[in-house]
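Recap from last week: sequence in, structure out.
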Amino acid sequence: MTDVARPRRRKVKRSLIMAMALLSLAVLILVLGCSSPLQKAQKLFNEGKYEEVIAQYGSDPNVATVVTQAKEKLAEKMVADGKYAAVLELYPETAAAKAAMEKLAEQLFNEKKYAEVIAKYPETTWAVQAKAELDKQAAAAPEVVAKEKAAQTELDRIMKIKMAALRTKALKEFVANPKYAGTRAVAKAQQTLGK
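Predicted structure tokens:
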């Protein structure tokens, strides 16, 4: 071999070694730098970026648990801020939705809208109290008893209407009629309309 060929081979070997090292480094960076969607979502969640978690990974079934946790946290924050109706609209499946429902029912109860509490939030503890309050009021005044009886009679007549469209129209008119306002029959009619 000539003296000229040796340095050339060394140069080629060095170049190959450098290229392999750079390629290995690039692959290592690529592998370490690419985290899974679950890891990315968990990182955003840990940083308190719940809206981003829901927006970016809301439809990814692999990240469903993190998305559910983010929805829970957002709903809890909204309840703490007093945004009860928004919680029921945006995150009805969360545990915070139950608390929001209780708060809305409590507000209506405090406004003495007992029939509305029973109609809108029948599964709350406030609905039970509202029913007891309506019963107490009914027993206290004979005119209230007469109003309840008249309202129930009218509701029974409306519910016997065969055509659904006419029955719905009659129910809406019944609910809007001030003559029957605050009765249990109106609460039942509101429940029927809500279904």
